[in-house]
Target: Queuine tRNA-ribosyltransferase
Amino acid sequence: MDFKIDATSKNARACTIKTAHSTIKTPVFMPVGTLGSIKALDMQDVLETLGADIILANTYHMYLRPGDKTVAKMGKLHGFTTFFKSFLTDSGGFQAFSLSDISKPKADGIEFRSHIDGSKHFFTPKKVIDIQNNLGSDIMMVLDDLVALPASQERIKLSIERTTEWARESIEYFRQKQESGIGVEQNIFAIIQGGTDKSFREKSAKELCELDFDGFAIGGLSVGELNNEMYDTVEHTTQFMPKEKPRYLMGVGTPEDLIENIDRGIDMFDCVMPTRNARNGTLFTSFGKLNIKGASFKEDKTPIDPECRCLTCQRYSRAYLNHLFRSREITYFRLATLHNLHYYLNLMREAREAILEDRYDEFKSEFYKKREA
Model:
């Protein structure tokens, strides 16, 4: 991986990340393709219509179905899905958190039962590396111990101790495999934990950033804490992260969250929000959220967002989208998903331009003014 800081505007950064499959301009939002597919879209939509340079796939889900060995036989993620730009794969740690009724973290890994057939499985730091080697992702995440907030001090302390121990095991195993010729074009990121406790975040960041990782993520946020707590935690944590490597905030979030955390030095984001909200009728616009199922849109000839240049807004009216949603037409899901993802990706492009021109403060102010108006 090649990483370069192109410009800064106070703490906001515009960077370039080069992997074996694509050049990624940051700040970047990564659409979530949990099962190797972004719901309602095909890869032509993602590559050509949206122009995404990196998407996220899920290690836990791809391991269970169709199986990482099957994916490897079919050309790994790039050949299997025909998305020939970059993939990031998460580690399965979040699934242990989100599927806590069927999973249990232990000292040496995470035990869980498949949500598909109930079969028992055990993820260790090394097993997660093996799975992601088979998937062939450009960026893989280490196994971490994620806890919901609020949590006791004892549980957060245990979380960061496990996360650091698993990270050490992961990076040693990953580099050993690279020396033997496996995963030589892949990169690996560590995940900083610690809840909203600043001393724990500092401890976790310092311990992990001493290790030979290609980049670093902040995990364990947007899991129940207040927004201001999240922002304060990110601002505190980034000061202990190396400037010369990518910074990734996992699972966040709203357009406001992205704008605020770019301001705090974050380069990479992912979240299911734009795709999931699209399917549920909530569309993102330059002036805020719009619920397309409302009766007021039944005869509205205007596009979702008059400022938007996406395929949906250039061709279709709110009235037509309202009709499709109410009729549960499959076409709705594609058009709405295209719009929401275009909005997110374009917001990142505009943020980058503002950083390159050293006017991020003005850009952020204008972003909020449109919403207030």
